[in-house]
Every structure is written in structure tokens, then in C-alpha cells.
Amino acid sequence: MAKPRVAVHKFTSCDGCQLQFLTLEAELLTLADRVEIVHFWEASSDIGPGPYDVSFLEGSVSTEENLERVREIRAVSQVVIAIGACAAAGGIQALRNRHRHEDFLKAAYPQPEHIDSLPHSTAFSDHIRVDYALPGCPPDQGELKRVLADLLAGVRPRVPDESVCMECKRAGNVCVLVASGEPCMGPVTRIGCGALCPAHERDCYGCFGPQAGGNPVALGRRFLGLGLSGDAIARRYRFIYNWDPTFREAAEIWEKAADEHAPLPGPGEVP
């Protein structure tokens, strides 16, 4: 019986998500016994063409070449899995989306006319159908293994969508928001990191993206009570997942509230 053909594709990114595969070390060798890794530039120069049973996509769509290639990959892949914050929401490079693309090019390059990039850094789901998205900067190794194991077993993968607060409660962590007054984003951030920052008495900064059902605007009112300004609250949402619609909307609301002529959002105005 033929082994499933697995590919890992890099787009505009730092390679950190791919490294989560490589640092599996001995477990990666076990995985290689069960699947045929046919395309993984980070690991091997022996690159095979599609079709692929599973394609993992890292990075964001930031160039015309990215856009053309991701469509080609989708056409020859049975399952497409976006891994990491860039893949799911444009990542850190999406910070440029709110400003003039030309200004960034002129500031960074002596000959910007030679740079072929798109005005916006976007998620793969903005351009193709994505079957599963694993959040994080980078994603959790355990989650990568579970999803691939589920697919190999013929089971539909389940990606948890609880808040970081649930991880804290299970681990017995003291709530840094309540006990220490830290502007922790755990109540609106997706599970998956093992509550790493709160476990070390640090506030969560949302690197696994928004949790479905969370209310980041309401959490902003709690931050307001801790002494943060509207601008400071907006910056909490203008980070790794800044272009995700949920965090982007919250940031825009609090930026507007920071205007001296705009009232702060009241309880009745919280979505």
C-alpha cells in the first residue's frame, strides 16, 4: 500500500513553523516511516511534484508569485493545512496593510521599483479553500502531530478552540489579570500554547489568535480599568494576529475611542 504523500511549502515567513517539524527529531523519523515526505525544502533538496495527499502551508501571501503558487498547490492537494499565524491571518508582515505600501518600499529599499510585492499580506484562506488551520507563532508541535495522526487514521482532526484561561485553570495557574492586574489577553486568545506566559506570571499577548466566542472589545474595557489608554489597548490587538477580523475590529474600535472627540465604548456598544 502506497504511503500518503506529504508536502511542506514555504511562503513569506521566518521558517519558524517548518522548524516545528524538524525539531521533532526522532519522532520525525517515525513519521517518515508512515508517510512519504516528498516536498520539504527545509529538510531536503529532493523535491517531488504533486499530487499531494496533505500539504502544509507556512507563511502568508505577500507576492504575485505566492498567489500563483498557492493556487497551484491547492489544485494538486487533497488536504491543505495552514500552519501558524502568518498562514492564518497574514502575520507580523500584515502590519503594513494599514499603511501605504509604497512608503514602506521607499523606506527599506534603495531601488523599490525592483521589489515585486503585494500591497497586503494575507492569509491563504483569502485565496483558496483551506481544510484546517493550526494557529500559533509557531504552532504547537503536539497539535501538528495530532492532526497528522488523525488524518492517517482516517479521522477528522479536531483543533481545540477554548481560551487560554481554560489551560490556566486546568494547570492551576494564578490568574495574572485578576491577581496582578496584568493586561492578559488569555480570555480572548485561543488555546494551544500551554498557557506558557501566564504559567510564568506573564500576561498572554495573543500569539495563538482569537478564540471563537471571545469578546475582545469587552476585555478592552477591563484593560481600560487597569489604566491602559485606548491606543495602548488597540496595540494589544495590533500584534501577531493584527489582520484577523476579530482582533482588527477590536483595535479599530479602541483606536477610535482614543480620539479625544470620541466617547469610550459603553457596555451597550460592546458587540
UniProtKB/TrEMBL annotation:
| Domain NADH:ubiquinone oxidoreductase-like 20kDa subunit: from-to ranges | 14-150
Which Pfam family is an annotated match for this chain, by its short name? Answer: Oxidored_q6
UniProt keyword list: 3Fe-4S, Iron, Iron-sulfur, Metal-binding, Oxidoreductase
**InterPro entries listed in its UniProt record:** Hydrogenase_assoc-protein, NADH_UbQ_OxRdtase-like_20kDa, NiFe_Hase_small_N_sf
- What does this protein need as cofactor? [3Fe-4S] cluster
Q: Which domain of life is it from?
A: Bacteria
SUPFAM superfamilies membership: HydA/Nqo6-like
The GO terms this record gives for MF are:
3 iron, 4 sulfur cluster binding; oxidoreductase activity
This chain's protein is named Sulfhydrogenase subunit delta
Q: Which organism is it from?
A: Sulfurifustis variabilis
